[in-house]
Write a structure and sequence with these properties.
alpha+beta, 3-stranded antiparallel beta sheet, 12 strands, binds the ligand Cc1ccc(-n2nc(C(C)(C)C)cc2NC(=O)NCCCN2CCOCC2)cc1, about 400 residues
Length: about 400
């Protein structure tokens, strides 16, 4: 049997995702890395327990009849095969057929963007409960601490990437699952209030100041700053560094409006606070664009005073996340030991403990077959700019060999 007949024979034996799951009408996300569907096992499918799954379709390129898997898809598969932690998205299975690769996950109905949007729009339920906020934060730090201990940075933490398991799962109800939905599409959205902001617009609101000053070193502290922004948003339901301007990803990470927003909220960084500030690649530009005197009366305490957070353990912890100097920012390990997590209400493995989940399920998107994505919508976020391609055959498929993670959590 020659190669092609053998592959065709193999294909016939392989379980087809279309035969195992109903999913085509249940698209919940679409973007640079591919499309994500909610999936329900078909009745005859005895392989998978009856619950909700997420199927992620990865776009392959058919190059001279060779299926080519993009670099980002390889990175996602390689990364997820190694990682195993209760607060991270868990890859269950991989399915392939001639032209497609599907990743199978347990489904997460909610995320923090959806939770915040609900409270922003509610007249009677304007803030998430203290217990919910604390549980989400504690579980987020457990997941991030595991990533950082394995020397993996997330680099795109934002509310839409902090998923939470909904009803239906007895064991994992209210469990945080850090993911990377990678739906960052670039488009010049018409000026919108943040209440309606699409979770997929590229925002700079969670970017640490050193990133905006073009630091050459991605560090764990960059993830911590982003979590600090998410924490402030859970406490106030307002994006702390909200910036009306939605700009296309510019070639340099320097973003004057975003820096102005940070300084207006926090004050201008003093050299004695951030010793290495002068060494930042965009320091010259910073001194030309900004007069520190303009921000003298600005501080985090003043900005958040209307939320009555002064002298609270929340505020003291928030200041440790939002420290301008990245070398002085608290680590995930240190955060988990903070007194905030050891006072009532204590964090809970079920973040929704004691409450009925008021948050709506994910909306289904229209499933246009030929996505008429315009050029810039296909533009990749910075870290995926360099696209090499690896032939599909080099990826061991379809099941996942259960491997112990490199470093025990
Ligand atoms: C290029 C690339 C893209 C994504 C990842 N990535 N990284 C992660 C970490 C944060 C656990 C390391 C998770 C994913 N993939 C992912 O969330 N995928 C989406 C899962 C879809 N959800 C599953 C749960 O239910 C809702 C949908 C890596 C590299």
């Amino acid at each position: 049997m020659i190669g092609r007949e053998f592959i065709a024979e193999l294909e016939n034996k392989r379980e087809k995702v279309e035969n195992l799951f109903n999913f085509e009408k249940f698209k919940v996300g679409s973007g640079t890395y591919g499309q994500v569907f909610q999936a329900f096992p078909k009745t005859k499918n005895k392989l998978f327990p009856k619950k909700s799954y997420a199927l992620k379709l990865i776009e392959c390129i058919d190059h001279k009849q060779n299926m080519i898997l993009s670099m980002s898809a390889c990175r996602e598969i390689a990364l997820l095969r190694e990682l195993k932690h209760e607060n991270l998205i868990q890859l269950n299975r991989i399915f392939t057929d001639q032209r497609k690769v599907w990743l199978l996950f347990d489904y997460c109905e909610h995320d923090i963007w959806q939770i915040l949007t609900y409270h922003r729009k509610s007249e009677t339920d304007k803030f998430p409960s203290k217990g919910l906020v604390k549980s989400l934060m504690f579980q987020m730090f457990q997941g991030i601490s595991y990533l950082h201990n394995n020397w993996i940075l997330h680099r795109d933490l934002k509310p839409a990437n902090i998923l939470v398991v909904g009803e239906g799962s007895k064991i994992e109800r209210g469990r945080v699952k850090i993911g990377d939905m990678g739906f960052a599409r670039l488009f010049n959205s018409p000026l919108k209030t943040f209440v309606d902001i699409d979770p997929v617009v590229v925002t700079f609101w969670y970017r640490a100041p050193e990133l905006l000053l073009d630091t050459k070193h991605y560090t764990k502290a960059i993830d911590i700053w982003a979590i600090g922004c998410i924490f402030a948003e859970l406490l106030s339901t307002k994006p702390l560094f909200y910036n009306e301007e939605e700009k296309l990803e510019t070639s340099t990470p320097y973003n004057r409006e975003q820096l102005h927003k940070i300084f207006t909220t926090m004050g201008f960084p003093k050299i004695e606070e951030w010793h290495n500030l002068k060494a930042m690649p965009c320091y010259e530009r910073l001194t030309k664009d900004f007069a520190s005197a303009a921000y003298e009366k600005r501080s985090l305490a003043a900005t958040l005073s209307k939320y009555k957070l002064q002298n609270t353990s929340e505020f003291r912890l928030l200041e440790k996340f939002l420290t301008m100097d990245p070398t002085k920012r608290i680590t995930a390990e240190e955060a988990l030991k903070d007194s905030y997590f050891y006072e009532e209400p204590l964090p809970n493995a079920d973040a929704f403990y004691g409450m009925k989940i008021p948050y709506p399920p994910r909306k289904y998107l229209p499933n246009e077959e030929n996505n008429n994505r315009t050029q810039h919508q296909q533009q990749l976020p910075p870290r995926q700019q360099q696209q090499q391609n690896i032939p599909l055959q080099q990826i061991p498929l379809p099941g996942i060999v259960k491997q112990e993670p490199r470093i025990q959590p």
